[in-house]
Amino acid sequence: MKAKDAPPIDGLVVSGLTELALGALTGWPMAVAVSRPHDLPRLGIRSGARLRQWHLDLIMLGSLTAAAPRLVPNPPRAVALPLAVGAWVNANAFGVLAFRPELKDHPVYKAGVGASFVSASWGFTGLAAVAWKRWWHGR
Questions:
Q1: How far is CA 29 from CA 19, 23, 51, in A?
Q2: Nearest-angstrom CA–CA distance, 56 and 41
Q3: With the CA atoms of 116, 122, 123 and 124 taken in that order, what torsion angle do they form, in degrees rounded to the nearest 10?
Q4: What is the DSSP letter of 139?
Q5: Domain residue ranges in the chain
């Protein structure tokens, strides 16, 4: 099947798979963290624990975001956009701390993380609400 003949791909799938790919790429520095933790500073990584959180969050949130349109087809934009933004910002907030752990108390960092929690919570809760509504009306 040629690309022009392929069915369109939902933006949440693209966003989630891209986040998942970044999570896979962070597996390389994770391998360094496990096998040669003393070499992490050469990569600019100052917190192995935050690196692990970043790696896992990218994989988990990326997978969930990519799966969302399969579980709830055609999610409304008011749900999909906050979900994608929240998943990206939330996961990557740990990446910031892997390199600059001292930023965890910075007001801009805290505001960004707070906003990402609101955004991801809105997106995932909205997705569940859409699923409930469609299920209820389809009974």
A1: 16, 11, 8
A2: 20
A3: 110
A4: -
A5: 9-138
Rounded Cα gap, residues 73 and 54, in angstroms: 28
Look over the chain and give the mean of its residue pLDDT values, rounded to a whole number.
Answer: 96
For the cut 90, the answer to whether the pLDDT of residue 3 exceeds it is no
127 near 84, Cβ under 8 Å?
no
How far apart, in whole angstroms, are the C-alpha atoms of residue 76 and residue 92?
24
d(CA 58, CA 52): 10
Q: To which residue do tokens 């917190």 refer?
A: 47
The vertex-130 CA angle with 11 and 122, nearest 5°, equals 70
- Condensed to tens digits (0 to 9), the pLDDT of residues 83-122 reads 999 999 999 999 999 999 999 999 999 999 999 999 999 9
Token pair belonging to 10: 């939902």
- Look up residue 70 and give its amino acid: R
Q: How many CB atoms lie within 10 A of CB 106?
A: 12
